[in-house]
Amino acid sequence: xxxxxxxxxxxxxxxxxxxxxxxxxxxxxxxxxxxxxxxxxxxxxxxxxxxxxxxxxxxxxxxxxxxxxxxxxxxxx
Amino acid sequence: xxxxxxxxxxxxxxxxxxxxxxxxxxxxxxxxxxxxxxxxxxxxxxxxxxxxxxxxxxxxxxxxxxxxxxxxxxxxxxxxxxxxxxxxxxxxxxxxxxxxxxxxxxxxxxxxxxxxxxxxxxxxxxxxxxxxxxxxxxxxxxxxxxxxxxxxxxxxxx
Lengths: 77, 158
Description:
heterodimer, A: mainly alpha, 6 helices, 2 strands, B: mainly alpha, 77% helix
């Protein structure tokens, strides 16, 4: 669906906190399917949703989302 | 956000998808029956459908009760935060938008073959032909939207 090389580290951040997809969904006020779709790269979330996920994981949004090849990719990959 | 209940959210999400599956079957049955009645009211399908017409609302009620039981005692309350989270879910909305766009194309593209197919059935009065076209288009459109919505929203193993 999306050609933009958006990279996300939700799965990694989730694993660090020992959170399931359902738990993250509940914390961010979204559904588990949304978390699943974003993690799998099938959905690019809106800015609002990205910020809510970042807040739920207690990290800056650029830690979770970034463009492939961007400076943040080197920092977190 | 934080008052969301994880289990309720999961149960409601499953309920929402099951309801869509049931709706798909209901639309298929109602659309098929309507087409049969319009095109051939005296035909075998038309006669059976007319005789068993009372079965359709009964079947819908049974399907509704069966789906409702999957809520495990919870109530689908549109004011609850879990239902609001599901209805406003971005992934759900994205999939519904995509499914609607595809369905529009499918319905438009199907007009010519549908018209040809229904027109080939000789002896059907023009009013019935127009009604059959409308019923076929609505059934096809609704079924495409629902089926694609379910397809796009499927879960991927990650």
